[in-house]
Amino acid sequence: MTRRTAAPLLVLACLLAHAGTLAAQDSRYTFLGDWRATDRLPGGVTVRAANGAVRVEQIEGVGFRFRYSAIGRFDTLASWATIPESLAVAAPEVAETPDAVTLRGRDLVVTIRKRPVRVSVADASGRALFAESLGFGRQGSRVAHLVARPPEAHYFGLGEQTVPLDRSGGSYVLWNTDTPGYRPGDGPLYASLPFYLALRGALAYGVYYDDTFRSEFDFGAALEEHAGFFADGGELRYYVFAGPAVADVLRRYTRLTGRAPLPPRWALGYQQSRWSYYPDSEVARVAEGFRSRGIPCDVLYLDIDYMDGYRVFTWSPQRFPDPRRLLADLRERGFKLVVIVDPGVKVDSGYDVYREGLARRLFAAWPGGAPYVGQVWPGRTTFPDFTKAETRQWWGDLHRRYFDVGVAGIWNDMNEPSNFGGHTVPDVVEFGGDGRPASAAEVHNAYALLEARATYDAFRRLQPDRRPFVLTRAAFAGAQRYTAIWTGDNAANWDHLPLALRMVLGLELSGMPFAGADVGGFIGSPDAELYSRFLEAAAFFPFFRTHAEFGAERREPWVFGPVYEAANREMIRLRYRLLPHLYTAFWQHARDGRPVARPLVFAYQSDPAVLGVDDEFLFGDHLLVAPVVREGQDAREVYLPRGTWYRYPTDERYEGGRRVTASAPRVNAWGRDDSLFVRGVPLFVEAGAVIPMGPAMQYVGERPADTLDLEVYDGGSAVSELYEDEGEGFGYTRGASRLTTFTTRGGDDALEIGITTAGTFPGAASVFRVRVHGLAAAPRAVTVGGAPAEAAFDARVRVLTFTLRADRFAGSPAGATVRVVR
Ligand code: MIG
Q: Which residue's C-alpha comes closest to atom 8 of ligand 1?
């Protein structure tokens, strides 16, 4: 009886809640329908339609934001991903005709056609970018967004996908998932980054869907002429970013969701991990292993076995009885220690962290308030509710226990969140949300983002003079503000080397620059060749760490015999020599959002030949790396984009715009030569480049580096940068930094290098050893600021060397010009 009377009431309620829904039985998506009215807003308009409304506003420095509502009302905007300070609106020029409303903004023009209501976006000169085909549809709480997919469009982004970088023709689910041993083609994996970058011909634009619910993108897998976004819930809200360059799109996207701040410089060094190094004496032995063999290393990791029964914020009294002492010993040898912190808190009334979280109601809970209990490493486990500021503060403060003994970085694992029982936390579980309660369905994808935020903020609050280092497995858009990321549980087989490149490059094109993959593959044990090849590639990943699963064979860089040890050492040493260049690339990201490891499409978007290139990339400016990613090879094909390129370090010269074959012998074919330099990895430098290199050290800051090498490549014209600061702390935000800009001009009479600087800081290099490559013969003269300088030409290798003191150009606004007269 009750049932019968309740049904019509429900129908009525549904009709009221979703005005415009035809009938409760109708499972069709409802699209906006025809125009009814236009309301003006300070930043744009709300267009009301038969079945809802769309609100279009220009966001300063970002682009246009589009919000949709099936009931014509818009709530106060809530987002964990976007930066509140980046949401200021800027009034566009609005014009209305009987057929359309047009919003002319700074870089984009939005047209809203009225019958039916549909949005399209063009750039300022009228070139079409993005156009709704069916547009916004709602079906219950689910949303769809269908736009036209022009045949010439190519799509990139969506983070760490296991497929080619060009996402055209595929579909992608975004739902953070612990997927150990994933394989090519698998998904979804750990991170959800609902941002894509599209190329129409040579023209780039980008779209970010600000929705944390489970979602799916379709770039023509099932939708034919449409490209689609579907989500299980949320307001449909997206931002469109103008190009025309890929760099412009990324600058705007990262203005909205943030950029990675400069990491501590040591975090760019080599890092060694294993599940698990214990007890403390074993950690000390690994440290000694590096130093005694002269293999550079900055960071060691402790995996879950350092804890007391997997209780986070504790130490095993047997394995690590005196962490403070261990850390002091490590520090003495130049090592930093990073410890793993999983989000799950063990259910144990004898454990203060659990008791406190429970008493203060800081855990995710069933409806009604009983804490939700899952199963993770500690056994029965609760999950902190990071949507609450109070939880984030509490969780952050717990890190004092690590910071006080000298832990330098925090590694967040299992934060999809992963749950052995139900895979993750069930949808019905609730989170407080600081006044906007939410279900796990909405919080899931943002869980790691919020955990990383709590951890990052703890560093800033508790050790304000040190730069945070956080590493995460799961992520959502915006996580780059807080954390580095690695690609989870890859495997020790040859599929995973090209896959690591794809995944890292996918992250790089999605606004997460501090990315890497476990060197060698986490699951299983690589042989010497695979490990060395992996290391050759990963030495150019922004985050560079070896890690191995529990029970895998030992995987320190020296365990594969003396020849491989020497080769691995050389690769790691090259990484350290390139730190001035790499650090500059991180600074460039912080400045304008460009990736650190840059897929070719970033720099050469008008060259269609680069669209399918996923196994080469630019390491900062001007350096192109094409690692060997297949077994048993001693050479590989490399696509060199337009321009002139030099092989490093042999200086063979190539004209680009074509494929070349680069020798890349396997380590056991290198021979035993004490002057071993890196022969196994095809590395090329663009003509005109100035690449700053430092001395190889055992760890960052081992000794002061007052002298840097400048490797200059003749035959082109280019701009290069060198950014220097203390590498730690925040002095650089108060002016303690120096940027040196090199502008080369390779003319017929001379090679000119203009050098200017901005800023100063006490540790900046004062002497540069310039080495000019590519000269046909000894130059007639070298002048610095017009005055002759002493230089030596080594005819055998055709390298010209001279010394340049920074006081010749630093400090003077005009800088200095160096001329190498032919
Ligand atoms: O259930 O902490 O991806 O890097 O070594 C496995 C143990 C949990 C998964 C991580 C891996 C880590 C491992 N963790």
A: 414
